Amino acid sequence: QVQLVESGGRLVQAGDSLRLYCAASKHTFSSLAMGWFRQAPGKEREFVAGINWSGVTTHYADSVKGRFTISRDNAKSMVYLQMNSLKPDDTAVYYCAADPDGIGDSYNYWGQGTQVTVSS
């Protein structure tokens, strides 16, 4: 079992910055690829950012490139999503996810989500 808990979501204004946090099981974290997904009301869940097991490789959705940064600290079993220049379109529930094989091609574990609301 991989346990994931997100935090950091809140109401912010357009143009603000926000950092999301995901805490993962210590004994599994170093082998996991990690990702952030989001789902807005009435929309399908979409990929936002991913990072491989070592943190060397990252990938971003086009909509967030240049604004969001995913990072991880394996010693702390944490993954982060730094969000800058937030837009109302970024409003969604953000989910942390884990891929056990470390690549990031199949996310099998999910957190409970944290709400991010960006006002215009």
List keywords for this structure.
about 120 residues, mainly beta, seven-stranded mixed β-sheet, globular
Summarize the structure in words.
The chain is mostly beta strands and 120 residues long. 3% of the residues lie in helices and 48% in strands. It has one helix and eleven strands, in the order βββαββββββββ. Strands 2, 4, 5, 6, 9, 10 and 11 form a seven-stranded mixed sheet that branches. A four-stranded antiparallel sheet has the order 1-3-8-7. The protein is globular.
Give the C-alpha Rg.
Answer: 13 Å
Q: Roughly how many Å apart are the termini?
A: 40 Å
Strands, total number: 11
Number of helices: 1
Percent range of helical residues: under 10%
Estimate what percentage of residues fall within beta strands.
over 45%
User: Which structural class do the helices and strands define?
Assistant: mainly beta
Low-pLDDT segments, ≥5 res:
none
What profile does the largest beta sheet have?
7 strands, mixed
Query: Helix-strand pattern, N to C?
Result: EEEHEEEEEEEE
Determine the mean pLDDT. 95
Q: What is the global morphology?
A: globular
